[in-house]
């Protein structure tokens, strides 16, 4: 009878530990899921807040630069627009000074590469 009691208690203890381990695993996974969702919600809110703040700063800076440019143009009488109008529009391969010489040199270099 004593041996049977020990065996039954051993089996019951084993079953209890298995159920307890399963419950702990379920609780652990639920808590991880629960707190992960909260973390993701907070992170998303922070990212949205940062995005809006950066956009606001960029719009503010853009507005300041536009106002500054307008004040400069008003002070100079609009001469800057006339002065800068033709710059920046050049053919491919041309440089600011001596563009023809540079183009001729490039043609010669291309010809030398083909020969060798």
UniProtKB/TrEMBL annotation:
Feature: compositional bias, Basic residues: 103-116
Annotated InterPro entries: Actin_motor_Myosin, IQ_motif_EF-hand-BS, P-loop_NTPase
Amino acid composition bias (Basic and acidic residues), ranges on this chain: 65-102
Pfam families documented for this protein: IQ
Renumbered residue ranges of the record's region Disordered: 51-116
Coiled-coil blocks: none
GO biological process, one term: axon extension
Cellular component aspect of the GO annotation: axonal growth cone
Cross-referenced PANTHER family: AGAP003327-PA, UNCONVENTIONAL MYOSIN-X
Protein's name in the database: Uncharacterized protein
Organism: Mugilogobius chulae
């Amino acid at each position: 009878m004593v041996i049977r009691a020990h065996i039954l208690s051993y089996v019951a203890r084993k079953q209890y530990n298995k159920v307890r381990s399963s419950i702990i695993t379920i609780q652990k996974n639920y808590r991880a899921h629960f707190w992960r969702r909260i973390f993701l919600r907070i992170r998303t809110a922070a990212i949205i807040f940062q995005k809006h703040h950066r956009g606001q700063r960029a719009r503010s800076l853009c507005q300041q630069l536009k106002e500054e440019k307008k004040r400069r143009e008003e002070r100079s009488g609009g001469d800057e627009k006339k002065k800068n109008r033709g710059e920046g529009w050049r053919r491919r391969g041309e440089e600011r000074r001596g563009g023809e010489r540079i183009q001729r040199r490039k043609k010669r270099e291309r010809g030398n590469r083909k020969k060798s």
